[in-house]
Amino acid sequence: DSLLSHLQTIGLNTYLKNQKISATASFYYQTGRANLKPNILQKTNAWMGSVYGNYSISKKISLGAGSDYLSGKDMDNTSLSVTNFNPLYGTHHKFYGHMDYFYVSSSHKNTGLWDNYLSASYKTSAQTTYNLAIHHFEAASKIIDYRRRKANPAMGNEVDFTLTHQLNGGTKITGGYSQMFTSTSMKYVKNIAESQKMNSTQNWLWISLNVQPEILLHSK
């Protein structure tokens, strides 16, 4: 038997947009196999789905809501099958909260993710925009506590505030503040020992300067 491994991701995106409403829906399926050793085969069967809609109340104010579901694997499942979806390309910061609790720093025990969120945007001028997003995170599969019992799937809530100010055509300042309110189940999926304390509220403050210079080339 060959030790060749492969993974395929197949997906579909749909979009709707008019003057007031924009919406998108996506579905992706992952399949493949990994020959870990001769006669030991690991198969992949995972999926994700997402839906998002945004409504413009006025030229300055818009509201949004969405839900992303990424399949997972029960923490007490010892089979070789892979049922937890892998987002692959590092865009998690954009979708699953600015504090990157999932898929970036750790795998959260491969329990998958169900992220339901609300957002609001307020444009005070042509240069300045405020954004607020509230996320509720749950595992997409079974979480097991320290005593091998089924735990609450809710892992926590996150609030993300962002401010963007355009200084000129090629320069803008972006900053934000994020607050995470974790549940006890977050300890179970983050490999935190039972005796170790985990702060239920954690925060992050950031600022960045983005410069995109335009270089003009002139030739006779």
What do these coordinates show?
The protein is mainly beta and about 220 residues long. The relative contact order is 0.13. The protein is built from 2 helices and 9 strands. Strands 1-2-3-4-5-6-7-8-9 form a 9-stranded antiparallel beta sheet.
From N to C, what is the helix and strand string? EEEEHEEEEHE
Order of strands in the sheet with most strands: 1-2-3-4-5-6-7-8-9
Structural class, by secondary structure, is mainly beta
Major beta sheet summary: 9 strands, antiparallel
What's the helical proportion of residues? under 10%
Taken from the alpha-carbon principal axes, the silhouette is globular
Bin the strand percentage: over 45%
Number of strands: 9
Average per-residue pLDDT, rounded, comes to 91
Distance between the termini: 64 Å
Number of helices: 2
Low-confidence stretches: none
Mind telling me the C-alpha Rg? 21 Å
Could you provide a short overview of the structure?
The chain has helices at residues 92-95, 184-189; strands at residues 5-17, 21-37, 40-56, 61-70, 113-123, 128-138, 154-168, 171-182, 201-211.
Q: What order do the helices and strands come in, and which of them pair?
A:
Layout: E1 5-17, E2 21-37, E3 40-56, E4 61-70, H1 92-95, E5 113-123, E6 128-138, E7 154-168, E8 171-182, H2 184-189, E9 201-211
Please give a handful of descriptors for the protein shown:
220 residues, mainly beta, 9-stranded antiparallel sheet, globular
